[in-house]
Design a protein that fits this description.
This protein is an alpha/beta fold. Among the domains are: about 10-80, SH3 type barrels (Roll), CATH 2.30.30; about 255-415, 3-Layer(aba) Sandwich (Rossmann fold); about 425-535, N-(1-d-carboxylethyl)-l-norvaline Dehydrogenase, domain 2 (Orthogonal Bundle). The chain contains 22 helices and 18 strands. Strands 10, 11, 12, 13, 14, 15, 16, 17 and 18 form a 9-stranded mixed β-sheet that branches. A 5-stranded antiparallel β-sheet has the order 3-2-1-5-4. Helix 9 links the parallel strand 10 and strand 11. Belongs to the HIBADH-related family. NP60 subfamily.
Length: about 550
């Protein structure tokens, strides 16, 4: 779902898990959201007492889920009532939540309208909506995340119950169970739009969501439309961002960054790292591609081994499993520069077996490894709006925070190595299959005497309307197949996704059919064109 539509949500300040670090910066509390299994670190400024705002909130939000949350608050208050005064305060808060739930519904509608005029980041950040959904999905499965840790360390104030939105719940579901140990109920409110966020891009939002029961498996999303307050872990709290300062609040890490691979994706990533003030050393198999970045302030590395040995964190973004392995294991490769403490982040889209093998050899030399494939295309890379799927070393993920903010819109941490590779292949499988379906429809329209432009207009008025659909169709109608995402790479991702299905005996007939069409397009010399050139495979 889109971020920014969730209204304030009733929550309870609870004790964070002992192993959860408290976020850096302003004082915050660990909040459990009623009606969900979500938890999050919420800043004091974002919390409002349940009683005074109860009626207002109920007016704003009339949704079923909100009503369920309010009912949960009331039930909690009933159970704790009589134990102490604090419990009775909670029951009042429950009532407030009911009223506030109605208010939230109205508020979310207003916020959606405001999105058009204001930056999406502000609203989304304030409501934390999109994040919530993510967290509710994975967090419900249960797991305890570092976010909980952070809350444990933060002091709690009874007078300010947090009100959180589903986004904020992202942190972890199991945390919710842990935090059941007492506190005041209240609403978590979005921070003021103008509130500055420390070391974070106003347009980059972090959500932390726990997917599994392992504390290590949480994933955080950082979204540029939202402002995220990176506290100690860099993923602890979510805050509304001032949409006016697009890049002003990113504080680049002082670690030396290396980057290997300056293709369609890598070039945009490096450019954004440099723009945000990072110190970057670059290497590419064909050295000429490095020249432009040297002019922009990058340093030149002669070999992958040299880059790794002279930098603290080295990123790589290459074409496929073979290239990723050669880069690490080949002559003067990454592995030769790895020594204890060196960090390697592979952003290539490869299969889980490949990335697991690379992680093992890097770690065996004392290095730290993170896989971080990206979802996007050349345009999104240039705009610094990629979606980053990370897994592996959680500490390294947090150390990469300023880098991910510079290059991405959102970042997810998915747990152990291999998870990001699998998720990335599934995402690209869906995208590749959809692209083939679009091409099939456009060509069928043409051969049956229907206007392709009218087909596009109709699709754009329906539920399939999307930037992807519109841009790809427009490019096809204009005969523009300039690569934004190479056709040969989407076919590679389909092939790897089908193999992933094979490994678990799961049928992937749609992807298999799409893959055959892309193979036909490759045979027609469309490999180095955009994936939309799959259209040409349908032309008789």
């Amino acid at each position: 779902g889109k971020l920014g539509r969730y209204p304030p949500w009733p929550g309870k300040i609870v004790n964070p898990p002992k192993d959860l670090k408290k976020p850096r910066g302003k004082k915050c509390f660990f909040v459990k959201f009623f009606g969900t299994e979500d938890h999050a670190w919420i800043k004091v400024e974002q919390l409002k007492p349940y009683h005074p705002h109860k009626e207002e909130m109920i007016k704003i939000n009339k949704g079923k889920r909100f009503q369920q949350a309010v009912d949960a608050v009331e039930e909690f208050l009933r159970k704790t009532k009589g134990k102490d005064q604090a419990s009775s305060h909670n029951s009042n808060e429950e009532k407030n939540r009911r009223s506030s739930s109605e208010e939230r519904g109205k508020q979310s509608t207003v916020e959606e309208k405001r999105k058009a005029s204001l930056s999406e980041g502000k609203l989304k950040k304030g409501t934390g909506e999109g994040k919530k959904r993510v967290s509710s999905v994975s967090s419900e499965r249960g797991s305890k995340s570092p976010l909980q840790r952070a809350q444990d360390q933060s002091p709690r104030k009874r007078g300010r119950p947090p009100k959180d939105e589903k986004d904020l719940t992202i942190p972890e579901s199991s945390t919710v169970k842990r935090v059941m140990t007492g506190t005041v109920a209240g609403f978590k409110w979005p921070p003021s739009v103008s509130e500055p966020v420390k070391d974070s891009d106003p347009h980059f939002h972090h959500f932390l969501l726990s997917q599994t029961e392992k504390p290590a498996v949480c994933y955080q999303a950082i979204t540029k439309k939202l402002k995220v307050c990176e506290e100690e872990t860099g993923s602890t709290s979510i805050q509304a961002a001032d949409s006016t300062a697009v890049n002003g609040s990113i504080t680049p890490t002082d670690k030396k960054i290396g980057f290997l691979g300056l293709g369609l994706m890598g070039s945009g990533i490096v450019s954004n790292l440099l723009k945000m003030g990072h110190t970057v050393t670059v290497w590419n198999r064909t050295a000429e591609k490095c020249d432009l970045f040297i002019q922009e302030g990058a340093r030149l590395g002669r070999t992958p081994a040299e880059v790794v040995s002279t930098c603290d964190i080295t990123f790589a973004c290459v074409s496929d499993p073979k290239a990723a392995k050669d880069l690490v294991l080949g002559p003067s490769g990454v592995l030769q520069g790895i020594r204890p403490g060196k960090c390697y982040v592979d952003m290539s889209t490869v299969d889980a077996d490949t990335v697991t093998e690379l992680a093992q050899v890097i770690v065996s030399r004392g290095g730290r490894f993170l896989e971080a494939p990206v979802s996007g295309n050349q345009q999104l890379s240039n705009d610094g709006m990629l979606v980053i799927l990370a897994a592996g070393d959680r500490g390294l993920y947090e150390d990469c925070s300023s880098c991910f903010q510079a290059m991405g819109k959102t970042s997810f941490f998915l747990g152990e190595v291999g998870n990001a590779a699998k998720m990335m292949l599934i995402v690209n499988m869906v995208q590749g299959s959809f692209m083939a379906t679009i091409a099939e429809g456009l060509t069928l329209a043409q051969v049956t005497g229907q206007s392709q432009q009218t087909l596009l207009d109709i699709l754009n008025q329906g539920q399939l309307a999307s930037i992807f659909l519109d841009q790809k169709c427009q490019n096809i109608l204009q005969g523009n197949f300039k690569p934004d995402f190479y056709l040969k790479y989407i076919q590679k991702d389909l092939r790897l996704a089908i193999a992933l299905g094979d490994s678990v005996n799961h049928p992937t007939p749609m992807a298999a059919a799409a893959n055959e069409v892309y193979k036909r397009a490759k045979a027609l010399d469309q490999s180095d064109n955009d994936m939309s050139a799959v259209y040409r495979a349908y032309i008789h």
